[in-house]
């Protein structure tokens, strides 16, 4: 078996009518990692996940999960992965305990090896074990979906927008559980619109846009690609109109005495920017900067694709 939990080579998908959802996508997910798969709406992320789940047939390329090719060994591949979809999918008339028991039965897990109560405890739903699933809040339903994906103890867990509509406290509980699973050896693949989550959680991030892979790098290395930097400068007098200088990419007045300046740190440094402000006849009282983050890189890469 390869050291990769997931291997994807030249994966493509063309839907009926000619819509190309995936175009020659290749990457691997290291065993034991938390891997981020990001992209705008309609980029192809869900299509890729559904191919891995066996719900969508690929047009070309190959994919394997835990060393099992999804075409040659589909049963083993499906048994090696748990998927939490964006949509909440379970029968509202079953209780959470019954939902997990039924799912475990579908995967052929013997009764003596089922962990339904342990899973409910892990996602903080033990007290709701016998309530109808339809009575659960949105956040509780999300957590039940995570437990449902883990009934057969898969070594790979895919989370497709798992915190959509979940409040901050429940989101933190969910991520604490994901980190616990990862510490126990589970490989996690995450898609999210909360880029700060991906930046905090993921070891490596791939970005898909228009069905093509446009980035695949360790998170810190990817964030380091952002060259745009913002500095807020408080000056010693009211400003009617912000000054202009060639070293500014953008300047705006966000208060009577506060200038927000964006510049390219690959071409100029902060000292040159501040000198340009002073050259405009303004005294500097205070300076604050904002470091580039994953959102900056994401927007820069996807904008370049649209251009």
UniProtKB/TrEMBL annotation:
InterPro entries: AAA+_ATPase, ABC_transporter-like_ATP-bd, ABC_transporter-like_CS, ABC_transporter_ATP-binding, P-loop_NTPase. Residues 6-235 form the ABC transporter domain. GO terms for molecular function: ATP binding; ATP hydrolysis activity. The keyword ATP-binding applies. It comes from the Bacteria. Keywords: ATP-binding, Nucleotide-binding, Transport. The keyword Transport applies. This is ABC transporter ATP-binding protein.
């Amino acid at each position: 078996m390869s050291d990769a939990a997931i291997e994807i080579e030249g994966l493509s998908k063309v839907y009926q009518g000619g819509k190309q959802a995936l175009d020659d996508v290749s990457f691997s997910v290291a065993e034991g990692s938390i891997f981020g798969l990001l992209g705008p709406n309609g980029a192809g992320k869900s299509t890729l996940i559904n191919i891995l789940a066996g719900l969508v047939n690929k047009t070309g390329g190959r994919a394997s999960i835990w060393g099992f090719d999804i075409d040659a060994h589909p049963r083993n591949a499906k048994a090696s992965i748990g998927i939490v979809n964006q949509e909440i999918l379970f029968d509202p008339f079953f209780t959470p305990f019954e939902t997990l028991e039924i799912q475990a039965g579908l995967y052929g897990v013997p009764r003596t090896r089922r962990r339904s109560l342990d899973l409910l405890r892990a996602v903080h739903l033990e007290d709701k074990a016998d309530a109808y699933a339809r009575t659960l809040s949105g956040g509780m339903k999300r957590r039940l979906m995570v437990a449902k994906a883990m009934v057969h103890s898969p070594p790979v867990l895919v989370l497709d927008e798992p915190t959509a509509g979940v409040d901050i406290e429940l989101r933190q509980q969910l991520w604490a559980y994901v980190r616990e699973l990862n510490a126990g050896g589970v490989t996690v693949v995450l898609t999210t619109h909360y880029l700060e989550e991906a930046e905090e959680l993921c070891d490596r991030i791939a970005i898909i846009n228009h069905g093509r892979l446009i980035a695949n790098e360790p998170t810190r290395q990817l964030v380091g690609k952002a060259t745009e930097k913002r500095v807020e400068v408080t000056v010693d007098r009211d400003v009617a109109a912000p000054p202009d200088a060639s070293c500014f990419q953008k300047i705006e007045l966000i208060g009577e005495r506060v200038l927000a300046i964006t510049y390219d740190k690959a071409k100029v440094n902060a000292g040159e920017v501040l000198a340009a402000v002073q050259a405009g006849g303004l005294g500097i009282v205070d300076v604050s900067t904002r470091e580039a983050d994953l959102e900056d890189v994401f927007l820069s890469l996807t904008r370049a694709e649209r251009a």
